[in-house]
Specification:
globular; mainly alpha
């Protein structure tokens, strides 16, 4: 027999979800200041795909991208030109594609174990993110040199380190009661 969540439990869950999204966005602020346009969107998308509901994933990716753009244009002196804004839009689209790809891969691999879905989701997120930006380089100026092996390797390395840190951060948030383990990408029902 299923029990319905009480309003207090539902409210507590909503507060925890919101707090977790805020904590991830705060970490993205640090990434944006430290790494500028190398913000690890594949790592952020992977974390969201592994531990957030679909709706929260979409909100988190959009807000982390928006925060990154505000920091870039407001504090890091990104050039305010049409092509810079267009690249910002391409990064946002790439971040969404990476997160959605991570969600699709992770949700299909949950029965395999714990590490395999994380790695597969990350590789899907990174590949889709980079492929989307590479596709944008065919129509936007100044993008070809950004896809040299050393540059892509650096972005990969930054994302791997960020994902490791974010997974540790998630474990700490779980231990503090800010987040539960959750189902990959699934909307949690009102009944428990």
């Amino acid at each position: 027999m299923q029990q319905l969540n009480t309003p207090a439990e539902s409210g507590y869950t909503a507060v925890r979800r919101s707090l977790w999204i805020v904590l991830v966005i705060l970490s993205s602020i640090g990434f944006s200041f430290a790494l500028a346009c190398a913000t690890p969107f594949a790592a952020l998308g992977t974390l969201a795909a592994l531990h957030m509901q679909r709706r929260d994933l979409l909100v988190m990716v959009g807000l982390t991208w928006l925060v990154n753009q505000i920091i870039g244009y407001g504090f890091l002196a990104y050039p305010q030109t049409w092509d810079s804004f267009a690249w910002g839009g391409a990064i946002g689209i790439a971040a969404y594609l990476g997160a959605i790809g991570a969600l699709a891969v992770a949700s299909r691999m949950m029965a395999v174990g714990r590490a395999t879905p994380i790695m597969a989701a990350f590789f899907a997120a990174f590949a889709l993110y980079e492929l989307a930006l590479y596709a944008a380089s065919f129509v936007l100026p100044g993008g070809a040199e950004a896809f040299s092996v050393p540059v892509v390797w650096r972005i990969f390395y930054v994302n791997v380190l960020a994902l490791a840190g974010l997974l540790i951060f998630h474990k700490l948030a779980m231990a503090a009661g800010l987040m539960d383990s959750g189902a990959i990408g699934a909307e949690k029902p009102a009944a428990a």
